[in-house]
Amino acid sequence: MIGYLNLILRLTIWFLLTSDLSLANIIIGVAIALLLPRSYTSPSAIRDWLRALWEIIVAIPQAYFEALEIIFRPHNYEDITLERVKPQRTPGLIFLDIFLITFTPKTIVLKYHEEGWYEVHRVRRRQKRDSQQ
Length: 133
Known about the structure:
Elements: H1 2-18, H2 23-35, H3 46-72, E1 77-84, H4 91-103, E2 107-113, E3 117-124, H5 129-132
Antiparallel strand pairs: 1-3, 2-3
Helix pairs in contact: 1-2, 3-4
């Protein structure tokens, strides 16, 4: 089952990159998705994939809300933080995590550290009280 989810993820990325649903492009996309090497790390559980997909569905209205908030209430401050990667994540789930963080207008992943950290840039309305002193 996880193999199918990886295949669907690869095809989705291919179609988003090419923006072409012609028969030739579908055949090329399937061929590339099947030829790309697979990772032989521990397989992720179905519940991790479902949780990630649910988080993406929840992030869509959140992204609209944040976009409107940035338009009507300026965000003048920014900071860079390190966020821990959830344990035992496969490369596909790490990609979805990075996509989810970057999807919302107030955050973007600057770098993924192999030690298990995301470097995240955030914009905020106000400075934190600690940094004002």
